[in-house]
Amino acid sequence: MITRRQVLIASLAALFPKTLLARSCVAAPDIAGAGPWLNSAPLSLAKLKGKVVLVEFWTYGCYNCRNVMPHVKQWHERYAKQGLVVVGVHTPEFPHEADPERVRSFLRDNAITHPVVMDNDSVIWNRWHNRYWPAMYLLNQSGELCYQHFGEGRYAETEAMIRRLLVKQ
Q1: Is the pLDDT of residue 14 over 70?
Q2: CA 148 to CA 54: how far, in whole Å?
Q3: Measured between alpha carbons, how far is residue 126 from residues 39, 61, 114 in Å?
C-alpha cells in the first residue's frame, strides 16, 4: 500500500530535473482487484510494465471530473501510440453511479475509449489511499508513482510530466 510519505515524495518528483526523477518515484499499488473492466480486458500494473500509466480516479456524476475529461481524452489520443496507457478508475460517490450500464452509456455518449475499471467497493481507491475526485497519478515504465494531481487544473504541467515520462530513462 502507498503511504502518505510516498505520495508526498511523488508530488515533489515534478519539481526535480529529469536526472533526479527516477530517484523521486515510489512503488505504486496495483489497479487489479475490482471490476468489471470496460473498454478493455482486466489490467494490472504487471501487464502494463514498460508503459507510462495515467491512473485517473473519477465518477461520472462529478462536475469536476467532467471538466477534466477532455484533457484526459486528449492525452489518451495524443500519447497512446508513444506508450501512454490511461486507466480510469470509476469509483462512485453515490449509489446510482455504481450501475455498470449507466457507466457504459456515459462512456459511449462521451466517446471515452480508454480502459475503465469499475471500483464500486472502493478496493482500488482504498489501496491507493485516494480521497478525491478527480485524482490523477502518473506512473513510469517501471510502475512507480512519479506524479499526482487532485482536482482541476495544472493541465500543462501534467502533460509535460507525461512527455517527460515517455522519454526512456
Answers
A1: no
A2: 9
A3: 23, 20, 22
CB neighbourhood size of 131 (10 A): 9
Render the chain in DSSP notation, one character per residue.
Answer: ---HHHHHHHHHHTTS-HHHHHHH-EE-----S---EESSS---TTTTTTSEEEEEEE-TT-HHHHHHHHHHHHHHHHHGGGTEEEEEEE--SSGGGG-HHHHHHHHHHTT--S-EEE-TT-HHHHHTT---SSEEEEE-TTSEEEEEEESS--HHHHHHHHHHHHS--
pLDDT per position as a tens digit, 56-96: 999 999 999 999 999 999 999 999 999 999 999 999 999 99
> Which pLDDT score, from 0 to 100, does residue 19 have?
38
In angstroms, rounded to a whole number, what is the distance separating the alpha carbons of residues 136 and 128?
Answer: 11
Q: What is the pTM of this model?
A: 0.86
Give the model's pLDDT for residue 24. 82
